[in-house]
Amino acid sequence: AKGCSEVIADRSRGGGRGERERTGGRKDTMVVEGDLFEEMIAGVKGELSAFFESKAASNPDESDPSAVLLTKVCQVIRDVGMRMEMSRRLDQGDFAVQLAPLCARAKTNPVQGAKAIAEALQASLASLSATEAATRLVKGVAAAGPYLNVSLNRPLVYKRVVEAVASRGAEYGVTDLWKGKRVIVEHTSSNPNAPLHIGNLRNVMIGAHAARLIQSVGAEVKQHFYVNDLGAQIGLTAFGYHRVYNKIKPTMKIDHWIGSMYAIMNTLVELQKVEVDIGKLEDACEAGDAEADAMRDALVSKAEGSSDKQKGITEYIGIYRELRDRDGYEVLFRTVVAEMRHEPDIKKGGALLNLAYERQEPDAIKIFRKMVIDCLSGVQETLDTYNVRHDAFDFESELGWEGSNDQFLDIMKSASYFVPQTQSNDKGVPEGAYLNMQQFLVDQKLPQGKKGYMKPYPNLYVLRPDGSTLYTFRDIVYSFKKAHQSDLALNVICSEQDLAQQKVALAMYMMNPEMVGRQYHLQYDLVKLKTGKMSGRRGRYLLADDLYAQLKDEITKKMKAKYEQRGDNVTQEFFEEVTHEISTAAMKYALLSCSCQTQISFDIAKITDFEDASAPFILYNSTRLSSVISKFDGLVETGMSTALPDIASVDWSLVDNQLEWEMLMEYVMKFPTLLKDAACPNGGALPKPPQNPDFGTHKVCDFLNLFTRKLSSYYGPKGVRILPHKTQTELTSEQQAALHARIHLCRAFRQVIDNGLDKLFIKPLRKM
Fold it and tell me: pTM to 2 decimals?
């Protein structure tokens, strides 16, 4: 409670990182510690800076147009710096500089400028001794139209990159861009009266992955689960759970059982709404389909003149009969109905229990917490399947118990945009209290329309007409509580909740302007069933547990076929471990491999394909690297090869295949950059609301797929032979040296893949 009020009152508090250190004092040379690609660019620029400084300070002969042009361009580069990027074609150059904007400042032709710089630079490099040249990153330069292409000293780059990967190990890829920033990622937050379905699971995967991405840029990240343990749904489920828990034993996983309970209880409530006697309906169903049909038809006929009531009778009697006959529901359904058939108002019973829980009545707390914790234990079992753990479970009920709601409401009521609840508004009907968001937007001159807030902006209702709080109010309170514990809060939420989340962030701004940019939401599109819709009220889900079982069955069949084809004999324990890891990896990849805003269409065959873009494909190629490294160890044991030397003593000039170079440059060197760009779009600068950061939660999947696809051709039939042929009995000194270099390179490749898989919380496999 104290934390919430402190954050509301303290208008001077802000989050984020301070000024970054810069190298060379120029805008273009900012380097993020740990980003090897940026460090390499800075190193190249550093080597070239002496040349540009000397040429910029020279006094060229005015009769020599080329010299004059060179001096002018170098003066611009000295003053404003230059943007250097990795070349799109590494066979023509490794880094490239677009000289057109620089030459425009110098009022010179960019093609001529590139040619003049390339000729002068190349002459300077040619004057270096062999010893000097071996220690320099830049090997050569060439002009290509308005571009300056820079070729690197490959042996030196191989050495530096492989050393960096080996020295940092599992930490390779981690940068310091958000070092010191405290971040809360709230995800999962499913209702504690149902199991996780496929939509929830997408939330889980995006949230857990986003947390690891943000950790990779140096932030201190906590994963929170907001437990919505208040409301009509939860009260209704707890009402039924309490009545039957001591009478029967759960016949299924506990969260599935509780979800089934809610589906049954909700159906009974809907039947009472359309005046169907539950006891009589059950007796009719027990007598047979003919009796049940006759009762339904009689009730529909009696409700003539009320089409809505007729529709409700037909729909919910149908759902009642469907649930009654569903496999696994038999005992639970009949026990719940037996307990509820004489309840005059089931909905009221659940509401009264919910009210008692809000008031902290001991008996109600015992009932609610038993049901909620039991359900969460089942949910956690599902999360454990995917290696997902939260750092905190925050209960909605405790916001009221600890006094946060009351303190916050007192502060909110003093806001000039707060409109109190009334029993008779200008239309003569009761209306709850709300915040006038449109007036706030107008007064603050915030943008509306395209790329701004919607116009007109709807009110944010926070209290019911009776003065009780709405969940939207409690969401605001909870958001301030998170703000007290962090510099940035990120809520993972489905796209349907976009406006609601936007309202919460806007309300935070209204209460304290320093809250602007302190909370964002990462929205994702829902996962829909191919036929019908998911509905907890009807017990119709595509359950996460069931989908895992389907994936496991498919993977088991494919792995058995592979082992039989190869004649491999593996233990049952090994087989179970491998099929489990591949199955969970397939699920994670499928839910993370496309952008959050893209709707997912599940295809079990595709996501378990060992040849297509999938987790099995990535894991398979990763194990091929491990196999190469393991076979090398075998060569050392038999004495055919000497032990692996230190990286510094390896002859990297023998690694001469273009594909190897491309993988080092595009994937190994750029891995930290990839993580940084995925976690901190727009260089870490957070957008101005109502825009949200465009986190690249699909980028690691894309990266691993492309990298392993290139790897598969690297050691394929037409690729590079790393190990000696089976018929070979000894190695020449050059073959031995090349083997050492390539094993070090394979280790670096594997480390990068391992680290990428770790960000997807996928366990790397050494054997499949």
Answer: 0.91
